[in-house]
Write a structure and sequence with these properties.
The protein has 328 residues and is an alpha/beta fold. The chain has one domain: Vaccinia Virus protein VP39 (Rossmann fold), CATH 3.40.50.150. It is built from ten helices and 17 strands. The protein has helices at 18-25, 38-41, 50-53, 87-95, 98-101, 120-130, 232-242, 258-265, 277-290, 310-327, and strands spanning 44-47, 62-67, 75-77, 80-82, 105-115, 132-140, 155-162, 176-179, 185-186, 189-190, 194-196, 199-204, 209-210, 248-251, 269-274, 299-300, 303-305. The strands form four sheets. Strands 1-15-14-2-5-7-6-13 form an eight-stranded mixed sheet. A five-stranded mixed sheet has the order 11-12-8-17-16. A two-stranded antiparallel ribbon has the order 3-4. A hairpin with a 2-residue loop joins β3 and β4 (80-82). The termini are far apart.
């Protein structure tokens, strides 16, 4: 922020100066101890410790709860430190807020909670106690430090649970467009795949292993300096699958705002809670940018694309624009 470093020309990491921070800090909702009615908090970034407001949150008002809690690691979040503890203590920590927090979810709502290999067993325990666990998604981060006496850690988990059996899930909205290497024809015509100028593609049903996600890095506009920022594409899958259009998504550890930003881009309402003021301001700036730019890297023309297909996505977008122009 202050005293910005000289950056590479292609570095698109979010920056914020003093004037911007003052501007965005005025937009934050700072609770005063009174009840937090839906009309007061929808499409707001709440600057607060979750523990201070959890008893004031409205009941049964969100369609989707996306939780990315501090992992059981030694980590510094812009001056706020979290320390690694044993599993019992971490489970106690989860139990101190999770049972209260899920009261915000509608009876037909869904919950996703993120973790790594160290915390995932505790997350499963808390989820199975208070929700109906539906699945575990494992996604490949690409990045990861090598180790001389261990396997390189490049995956994380997301547990998917619901409050009941009558829950919303739109599988059609999260299909992936994959290249067909050995296309099969029936009577000379493509079978369950599409022939295009850019190659042959098939829309596939999503599995619970995601290998098409890229961690935000310096040349991506969504990138911030948050140490555990989730990719917009990752959150987009959760929202499109489990929150209806105009529904409400809540993230109690919103960090630099990815969940709120993606919800806005996809036509959903959001509530973000964050203890760090600087992260709250980053969230607000990203929400401002989303007013004019609704793009999500890896999601185009209503489908998710596998990695390394950007040129194909752009070509398809051009073709779609040409078609619309001719029709008009």
């Amino acid at each position: 922020m202050e005293g910005e470093k000289q950056r590479a020309p292609r570095n698109k990491t979010l920056t914020m100066n003093i004037v911007e921070k003052e501007k965005y800090s005025k937009r934050l909702l700072i609770p005063d101890g009174s009840p937090l009615f839906p009309s007061k908090i929808i499409n707001k970034t709440i600057y607060s410790d979750l523990f201070n407001i959890i008893d004031y949150l409205p009941k049964s008002f969100v369609d989707l709860l996306v939780i990315d809690p501090p992992y059981n690691l030694d980590k510094d979040f812009n001056g706020i430190r979290f320390s690694k503890s044993d599993d019992d203590k971490y489970l106690q920590y989860l139990g101190s807020w999770f049972p209260k927090l899920i009261n915000v979810v509608k009876p037909n709502g869904s919950i996703y909670i993120c973790g790594d290999w160290k915390s995932t067993s505790c997350l499963y325990e808390i989820m199975k106690k208070y929700t109906i666990v539906r699945n575990r998604i494992t996604w490949q981060r690409e990045k990861g430090r090598g180790a001389k006496k261990n396997w390189k850690n490049t995956t994380e988990d997301i547990w998917f649970g619901t409050m009941g059996d009558d829950y919303y899930f739109d599988v059609e909205s999260v299909k992936q467009k994959r290249r067909v290497i050995a296309p099969y024809r029936e009577n000379g015509a493509p079978k369950d795949w599409e022939e295009t100028e850019n190659g042959n593609f098939r829309l596939t049903y999503p599995s619970n292993f995601w290998d098409d996600i890229s961690i935000p890095y310096w040349s991506m506009p969504e990138n911030t300096e948050h140490p555990t920022q989730k990719p917009e594409k990752l959150i987009a899958k959760l929202i499109l699958a489990s929150c209806p259009k105009n529904g409400i998504v809540l993230d109690p550890f919103v960090g630099s705002g990815t969940t709120s930003v993606v919800a806005k881009k996809l036509g959903r309402n959001y509530v973000g809670i964050e203890i760090n003021e600087e992260y709250c301001c980053w969230t607000e700036k990203r929400l401002d940018i989303a007013e004019h730019n609704r793009e999500i890297q890896g999601y185009s023309s209503g489908v998710f694309w596998e990695r390394n297909t950007l040129s194909m996505q752009l070509d398809e977008r051009k073709e779609a624009n040409k078609k619309r122009y001719k029709e008009n």
